[in-house]
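Design request, tokens follow.
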């Protein structure tokens, strides 16, 4: 039987045991990660013999008086996590319950392990195909390097000629301040201070768990690029980054990504570039030899007509404002 559990009803020991036992065990679904990015998260849980055997994290909130489900910041994928004890057809049942509970669902992203099962449910739900880029690091570095495109190899050589200094750090503040100065103005809608604070809190917890790696580059005294990675269950996630004009020209992020590939070459790790749906960025990640992997995002709108109307008007005004050039998309 599937239960909907409020945050206070979730047994986090059972939860994390289920996540780590699942085939798609990922850091974003662990209770301590969710506690940072969505403090009041809820869940759908299938329990058998006193153990959680299937779970679906629900970072839901109340918005405009209605239950709303979305994707928390800094969280690439969630979805439904199954174990060998999971019931047949459990994904379809959980998806049905989620859609009934939340009047509005926007961009709730499922993990790649859900993809094949959700393919069969596209006629019933608004499941939007999205893609990330994976690079398996199980080959020696020279073989991985051969898969780089000609342009990527050339830009890596340029980075080395620029005499960039690369160093690891336990201080995320330079990365946040760098992003505020050089990138934030490009983000549609801006970035709230609470989102930055969430990243600080998340980095602190990830460092305590030994799952964060932060690398900066500089051509002098000032940081010109920074990259944050999360490492868990043989996956390295490219979680957050920033580069100024100098960092882009000197290819600081290329150097850092190449260093990560070099460090973990010949291991069971996979580098997940967490590709956004932006062609230029996806092309950049593909240039390292990374291949496309499909996953789904769920949308659902059962809001009353008058609320939909108000929301559509607000979005139309926003798009008009955006297209005037006041805002700029990354």
């Amino acid at each position: 039987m599937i239960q909907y559990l409020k945050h206070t009803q979730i047994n986090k020991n059972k939860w994390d045991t289920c996540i780590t036992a699942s085939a798609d065990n990922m850091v974003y679904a662990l209770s301590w990660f969710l506690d940072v990015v969505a403090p009041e998260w809820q869940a759908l849980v299938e329990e058998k013999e006193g153990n959680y055997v299937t779970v679906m994290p629900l970072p839901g909130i109340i918005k405009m008086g209605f239950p709303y489900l979305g994707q928390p910041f800094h969280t690439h994928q969630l979805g439904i996590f199954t174990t060998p004890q999971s019931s047949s057809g459990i994904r379809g049942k959980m998806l049905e319950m989620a859609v009934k509970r939340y009047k509005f669902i926007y961009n709730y992203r499922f993990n790649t392990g859900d993809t094949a099962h959700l393919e069969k449910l596209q006629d019933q739900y608004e499941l939007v195909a999205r893609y990330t880029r994976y690079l398996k690091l199980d080959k020696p570095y020279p073989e991985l390097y051969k898969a780089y495109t000609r342009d990527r190899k050339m830009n890596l050589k340029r980075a080395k000629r620029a005499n960039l200094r690369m160093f690891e750090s336990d201080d995320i503040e330079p990365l946040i301040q760098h992003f505020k100065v050089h990138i934030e103005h490009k983000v549609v809608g801006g970035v709230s201070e609470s989102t930055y604070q969430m990243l600080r809190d998340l980095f602190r917890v990830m460092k305590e768990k030994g799952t964060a790696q932060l690398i900066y580059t500089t051509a002098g005294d000032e940081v010109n690029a920074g990259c944050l990675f999360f490492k868990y269950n043989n996956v390295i996630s490219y979680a957050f980054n920033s580069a100024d004009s100098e960092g882009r020209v000197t290819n600081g992020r290329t150097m850092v990504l190449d260093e990560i590939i070099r460090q973990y070459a010949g291991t069971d790790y996979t580098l997940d570039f967490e590709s956004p749906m932006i062609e230029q960025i996806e092309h950049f990640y593909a240039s390292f030899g990374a291949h496309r992997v499909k996953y789904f995002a769920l949308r659902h709108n059962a809001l009353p007509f008058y609320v939909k109307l108000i929301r559509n008007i607000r979005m139309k005004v926003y798009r008009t404002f955006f297209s005037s050039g006041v805002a700029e998309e990354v």
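Comment from the thread starter after seeing the answer: thanks! Residues 132 and 226 are 21 Å apart (CA to CA).
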